[in-house]
Amino acid sequence: MRYISVSLAILLATAGFADTLVLRNGRTVNGTVITLGGTPREIRIDVGGKTQSFSVSDVSSVSFALPAEPEAQNSYPPEFGFLIGEWESQSPGNLWHMRISWDSANKQFRGILTVQGEGSEAVGFQIGELVWTAEPTSQRALAERQKWRYGPLNYEWRMGRIDLGQSSGDRWVSSANACTFLRVR
Asked: Which domain holds residue 111?
């Protein structure tokens, strides 16, 4: 099932960014995602003032645009700003993507699944699902939590750490799954 928090849905509905849906048939739809899960199996996107709905089974990926104005991101520690953007897991056989943004209200970075990997799809992850969070613990490290699924209804949050000494603007390593992530854009 595809669920998203009300606060994130409201943020997406009011943000006014140019988001992109890529459908399985190759069609690309640009607009502003209104909801992921108007029903549990639907994504709605505003395109030029008109709402279009798509079944999640027809959607290959969702990309959320970054805010045009930097002041929306200023409340996170600047040394961790490199995390914001699209990242690809380098897990063999499961090259999934997540879009990381800063959640000012909860003072944490949040990763939303945007592209399925073979393994993540097989165990029931859904595009638009919250799969990762991280909170600064010092000027050099973040405490992270990564969602692990064992089927559509069974999951756990694994704790880990990200050390800036092992990271750069285009690469970081998760200790929650000993996986490297590379920047996509």
From this structure: 73-183
